[in-house]
Amino acid sequence: MRNLxxxxxxxDYNDRKLADMLFxxxxxxxxxxxxxxxxxxEKLTLKLDQLxxxxxxxxxLENQLPMExxxxxxxxxxxxxxxxxxxxxxxxxxxxxxxxxxxxxxAHLLDYIRLFHTFGxxxxxxxxxxxxxxxxxxxxxxxxxxxxxxxxxxxxxxxYKNIRDLRNVGIRVEANKTSxxxxxxxSFTSKLFSGKLMLPGIVVDDxxxxxxxxxxAYEMLPDFPNNYEFCSYFSLMDSFIDDAxxxxxxxxxxxxxxxxxxxxxxxxxxxxxxxxxxxxxxxYSSSVVGYSNKYIQIKEQIxxxxxxxxxxxxxxxxxxxxxxxxxxxxxxxxxxxxxxLTSIQTWYTVHPKQNS
Length: 356
Fold this sequence. Notes:
The chain is mainly alpha-helical. It has helices at about 5-10, 15-35, 50-60, 65-75, 80-90, 110-120, 130-145, 165-170, 210-220, 230-240, 245-250, 265-275, 290-305, 310-320, 325-350; strands at about 170-175, 185-190, 195-200, 200-205, 255-260. The protein has two domains: about 1-105, no CATH class; about 120-325, no CATH class. About 50% of the residues lie in helices and about 5% in strands. This is UPF0481 protein At3g47200-like.
């Protein structure tokens, strides 16, 4: 087991002392996960707040125990241990489909949480625009090329600043219900009058700040090869959130569940996380962070829609100003129908039907 730990951490422990410590910690963790029940914390002789403090401490990076140790101490196979991890992960949340989590082979509990959110996931395929949408976009592109030079921005720039900017140009946000806990379950569809951004669900509670900071620290470990999946996801979310109003937009859309407190606190948390993300995450022109390039594709799709004046300035403004409620649409259709009937009546008045 010594080779699973950094030598400067265990240098003061002989084999017996290290074995005793790992035995006690490992058994305590297994017992806790096997018996934890947020509805009945008294089973562990705990109150609910004490149980949550223990839950928080268990996921800290410095408190992780190797999976090999847990397998040695438990009579359960890897698949059964991952079920315990799953139960622990969603302890105080609505039970979710376990999906393919039994296939995961984590190094420890925090690694399981990370793998659960990324394993077998890929960016949701973009919904193919309708023929009308593609025709209008093609016509706009041709007209733009005829009358003005196409505007281009450097790859690392994007025009929108937050989720409200997207809403103002007709882009609506919805929660993605399929594999909703996968961080990469993101898609964007550009339509004629609007755009649709699909985002996975995220719960922000009192444990979230500890969890997020530890996950970022874990991905930044020099001896842990990874593609910065978690950092990439939060880099994307940071581009949507500036203040409490943006948090409210995501909360109303069903994307974000705020159990932390006020929307201001959630916005502050995301703004703080921006400062600890790896510097290369902001270098969008770099291909070093391969996984983040998938999120860059989404940003580019959004920016392309955002820069389309036909969709964002004219059609979107027309829709938001005159057709922002079902009643206005019904009134418009009624007016069109009345105009059509009046035209038909006028036609038959001017050209009466000849009697044979």
